[in-house]
Each structure stands twice: as C-alpha cells, then as structure tokens.
Amino acid sequence: MPSTPIAPEPVTAEPPRATPRPLLTQSWLDSTFVHWAADPADVAPLLPAGVVPDTLGGVTYVGLVAFRMHRIGWFRLPGIPYLGSFPETNVRLYSVDGHGRRGVVFRSLDAARLVPVLVARAGFGLSYVWSRMAVRRDGDTLTYTSRRRWPGPRGAHSRLTVRVGGPIEAPTELEHFLTARWGMHNTTFGRPMYLPNTHPRWPLRRATLVECDEDLVAAAGLPAPSGEPASVLYSPGVPVRFGPPARPGAAPAR
C-alpha cells in the first residue's frame, strides 16, 4: 500500500478499467441483492489487511446476494456447462484499499458444486462452501434456498423469496454503490490480492422481499440483521470477465 492512502475512486456504473486478457469468464444470472446497513466498526475487523470498510454517508453495508452462476470459463475458452453452472449465495462486505480501489470482500460463498468449491478454496483462498441449493421461479417471484454441507457450520441456511418489480431507469447513489463493484479484495497464500472484474452496466429492477429466513450473515461473523433491509434489488444478470490478480501494492492500471 502507498504510505498515504489515495481517496477512493468514484463509483461508476461502467467499469473504470478494461479487461483485455480475461483470466476467468462467467455470467451472473437471476441476481438478487439484499442489503442491510452496518456499523463500520463491526465490519473492519473482518476485512483483509490493507483494506478498510467502504462507506456512504458514514455507513457501510452487508449484502446477501443470491444468483445463478452460469458457465465459468478459463481465459477465452467456452464456459463449462455443468460444473461451471450452479446456484450461489454469498455474504459480502464493501471495501476500499490504499490505492482507492473499491471492491467487495466475501465472508462466505455457498455454491452447489463441490469441484468449483475445492478449486476456489485451494487456488484463490476464497471462503467457498458446498451447499444444497436451488433457485425456483413462479411468475415474477423467485425463491433461493441453501443449506450448508461442508465445511460448515453444517446446516447454516438461507431461504430468500423476492417479487420482481419494474425496471430502474435512474439508480440512486446507494444502488450504484451496492452493485457497481469492479474488484474483489482477498488474502491469498498470506498476501493481499485484488482481483478486478468488468461487465456491462447492471440492468436493475425493483424487488420486494417476501421472505428472508437465514443465518448465513451471523455464521459469517457479523451481527444478525435486524429490521427491514436498506435495499432489495433484482437483475436478470450480466456476463463477467475477471482479469489477472493485481500484484500486492500495485496501483490500478488505467
């Protein structure tokens, strides 16, 4: 990190950098974002070294994000249809590093395929867990279910039902802050790592939370959410390209 931290980059609906040589490609489909306000003091101890909570108006957020991962692929090769496609639900926090790069930190990532879980844990040090999961649609209502298998805590679960509403023509500052994230902060093999990503602007829709029965947030070491969420959003999805990890302490390429 630089000796004097740089101010955070602006929040932009489009990626601030290109990904000319993707390391990974995938699509995030039927994505539902549920967010609660959080105290930065509760979040800070859970972040990797070298990053701090990203805040908007002095508040940070914890997100429960459920979606369908679709066709993970390496480099420019076609995505894998079976092993690369599965439901996923993650608990994520919002971070910024000393170079001003905004990102997310995943406290947990529940996925329905064991092989991708093992690869992500071994290769990237990500907190993937193997879970029994499903995504079901009934008209404009989607239900995402998850129950953890390995490594645990076994039985940690989530049942999330949302009713999808109309499109959002002009997202608010908060809606951009929660969804326009162009990288991931993590610690891999004991070293800080920033993994950049690019994708088209999220096509966002309003959503109503019909049911939320979960203990994934508490299992991730955070206070259990109380009260109504600050934001509930849905998107049909976007194709995503991940670039190679940035070197520890390297400034972002332009």
Explain what the structure shows.
This protein is mainly β and 254 residues long. The protein has a single domain, classed as Acetoacetate decarboxylase-like (Beta Barrel). It has helices at 40-43, 114-124, 173-179, 216-219; strands spanning 24-38, 51-53, 60-74, 86-97, 102-111, 128-138, 141-150, 157-167, 183-188, 191-198, 205-214, 231-242. A nine-stranded mixed barrel has the order 1-3-4-5-6-7-8-11-12. 37% of the residues are buried.
Task: Set down the secondary structure blueprint.
Blueprint: E1 24-38, H1 40-43, E2 51-53, E3 60-74, E4 86-97, E5 102-111, H2 114-124, E6 128-138, E7 141-150, E8 157-167, H3 173-179, E9 183-188, E10 191-198, E11 205-214, H4 216-219, E12 231-242
Parallel strand pairs: 5-6
Antiparallel strand pairs: 1-3, 1-12, 2-4, 3-4, 4-5, 6-7, 7-8, 8-11, 9-10, 10-12, 11-12
At a glance:
This protein has 254 residues and is mainly beta. The protein has helices at 40-43, 114-124, 173-179, 216-219; strands at 24-38, 51-53, 60-74, 86-97, 102-111, 128-138, 141-150, 157-167, 183-188, 191-198, 205-214, 231-242.
Features:
4 helices, ADC_dom_sf, 9-stranded mixed barrel, mainly beta, YqjF family protein, Acetoacetate decarboxylase-like, DUF2071, 254 residues
Give me the CATH superfamily. Answer: Acetoacetate decarboxylase-like
- Helix proportion: 10-25%
Tell me, rounded to a whole number, the average pLDDT.
Answer: 92
| CATH first level | Mainly Beta
Q: What is the strand tally?
A: 12
The biggest beta sheet is recorded as:
9 strands, mixed, barrel
SSE series: EHEEEEHEEEHEEEHE
Pfam families: DUF2071 (PF09844)
Region (Disordered): 1-20
Protein name: YqjF family protein
Organism: Sphaerisporangium corydalis
